[in-house]
Amino acid sequence: MTKIDLDDMSLSELKALQKKVTKAIESFEDRQKNQALAALEAKAKEMGFSLSELTGAPQAKGKRKPAAPKYRHPEDAGITWTGKGRQPAWFKQAVTSGVSPDDLLV
Asked: Which end of the chain is more exposed for a tag (fewer CB within 10 A), N or C?
């Protein structure tokens, strides 16, 4: 290993060296974790299991489907709302002006 004389380095050189050392440590730890994970997965597979079955980790789920629209804008049918989350301004305005939410159902 090369010996570095830290006393002869400027502050900017020391900070640059610190960043390089930090990255090298993180990279080393990531490689070690990946090797350990691969070894554990191989052992679990050898015994007829998946690693997630043994650890109780939840299975990866697919993406949710977008919710179907429940309410439609009274004048522009292209504007809809699922009924979840904050009420859109057009919905609030329609309800306060006397329109029943049932009248806005899709």
From this structure: N
**Token pair of 106, please?**
């899709």
**Sign of the CA dihedral with 4 first, then 7, 11, and 12 last:** negative
What kind and span of H or E run contains 47? none
- pLDDT tens digits for 9-61? 999 999 999 999 999 999 999 999 999 999 999 999 999 988 888 887 766 66
Contacts of 88 (CB under 8 A, 6+ apart): 79, 81
Residues in the chain: 106
Instruction: Scan for tokens 């440590």, then name that residue.
Output: 25
The first and second tokens of residue 99, run together, are: 């329109």
- The per-residue pLDDT for range 55-100, each reduced to its tens digit, is 877 666 667 888 899 999 988 888 999 999 999 999 999 999 998 9
